[in-house]
């Protein structure tokens, strides 16, 4: 397994880019849960970066670092321009989306449909690398539609790796662009970890990070053998303490106390709401903190409904966490 020049990132535990979920407030929250995990932004299109508000699109708290910016696009010259605009914002890596199957992404001719055009992906990555010394990486699937999972994936990886890409985040399920909705594609066709493992064994000169269906610490750690790391998606968002358990097993990071995480978020929310950020924009990402614990329902209800009306962000979050902790203590007694 090799690294690009100057690439010292630890990718053993990564949190996947998720549209409408992994915004700056979500990432700040997840950083309190798993201090050593590698976090990703939501996908940002090249055109948005070229024409849009960079603070809104790229702004982030220093505590989120190390942070990967995921880009969407299929025009090398436009991606190069987007990278040039993004580099000063302090990201640790730039990642090209070649895995999203949504209709919205396909209509822009990027995401998973690019797996059918490995030469174009290679050209895109080369254009990006020409603008930065940061690692340029790719997130993709094991194939799309009727593409052969063996020869098709090998050709794609070999072509893009020859362009200089040394890190691939591989979702172990085909993207089905015709006949299945993105929601259905989360379960169909089945995951194929063995196919990703064979690739990692064949191409030991690149780093392969396994993604897809790794919903608990035991599964993630068991499947991690042979890979440079694992990438967690929805489980990290819906049950964030699972991410903390993975960090504990992988890095030896002590499990954070949920109340400590809530208190850190209370201080963060206090600062952000004073700057004009709606409290609900922050608390909506925190609903899973007490998942599986006594008081979880109350936590979700308060943060999901009452947060919109709370006059004081810090007091509201701290009081809600205290109520959950008290309820859990009573049940334990």
What does this structure look like?
The chain has 333 residues and is α/β, with parallel strands linked by helices. The chain has two domains: 13-251, TIM Barrel (Alpha-Beta Barrel), CATH 3.20.20; 258-332, Four Helix Bundle (Hemerythrin (Met), subunit A) (Up-down Bundle), CATH 1.20.120. 44% of the residues lie in helices and 13% in strands. The chain has 15 helices and eight strands. The chain has helices at residues 24-33, 46-51, 54-58, 76-86, 103-107, 118-129, 151-162, 193-202, 217-223, 234-238, 240-251, 258-274, 279-283, 296-305, 313-332, and strands at residues 13-15, 38-45, 67-72, 93-98, 136-141, 167-171, 207-211, 229-232. An eight-stranded parallel beta barrel has the order 1-2-3-4-5-6-7-8, surrounded by seven helices. Strand 7, helix 9 and strand 8 form a beta-alpha-beta unit. Helix 12 (258-274) packs antiparallel against helix 15 (313-332). The longest helix has 20 residues, at 313-332. The chain is globular and about 60 Å long. The N and C termini lie far apart (51 Å). Residues 1-5 have low confidence and may be disordered.
């Amino acid at each position: 397994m090799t690294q690009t020049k100057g690439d010292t990132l630890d990718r053993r535990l990564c949190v996947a880019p998720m549209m409408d979920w992994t915004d700056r407030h979500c990432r700040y929250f997840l950083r309190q849960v798993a201090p050593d995990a590698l976090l990703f932004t939501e996908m940002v299109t090249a055109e948005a970066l070229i024409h849009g508000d960079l603070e809104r699109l790229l702004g982030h708290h220093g505590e989120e670092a190390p942070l990967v910016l995921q880009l969407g696009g299929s025009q090398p010259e436009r991606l190069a321009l987007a990278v040039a605009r993004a580099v000063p914002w302090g990201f640790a890596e730039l990642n090209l989306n070649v895995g999203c199957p949504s209709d919205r992404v396909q209509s822009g001719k990027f995401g998973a449909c690019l797996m059918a055009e490995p030469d174009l992906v290679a050209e895109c990555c080369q254009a990006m690398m020409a603008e930065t010394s940061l690692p340029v990486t790719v997130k993709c699937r094991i194939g799309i539609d009727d593409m052969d999972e063996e020869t098709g994936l090998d050709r794609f990886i070999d072509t893009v790796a020859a362009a200089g890409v040394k890190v691939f985040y591989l979702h172990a399920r085909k993207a089905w662009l015709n006949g299945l909705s993105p929601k259905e594609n989360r379960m169909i066709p089945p995951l194929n970890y063995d196919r990703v493992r064979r690739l990692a064994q064949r191409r030991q000169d690149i780093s392969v990070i396994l993604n897809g269906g790794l919903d608990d610490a035991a599964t993630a750690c068991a499947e991690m053998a042979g890979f440079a790391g694992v990438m967690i998606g929805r489980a990290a968002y819906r049950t964030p303490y699972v991410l903390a358990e993975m960090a504990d097993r992988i890095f030896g990071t002590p499990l954070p106390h949920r109340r400590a995480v809530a208190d850190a978020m209370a201080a963060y929310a206090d600062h952000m709401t004073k700057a004009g950020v709606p409290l609900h924009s922050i608390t909506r990402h925190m609903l899973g903190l007490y998942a599986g614990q006594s008081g979880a329902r109350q936590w979700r209800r308060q943060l999901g409904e009452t947060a919109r009306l709370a006059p004081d962000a810090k007091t509201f979050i701290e009081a809600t966490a205290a109520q959950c902790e008290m309820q859990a203590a009573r049940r334990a007694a």
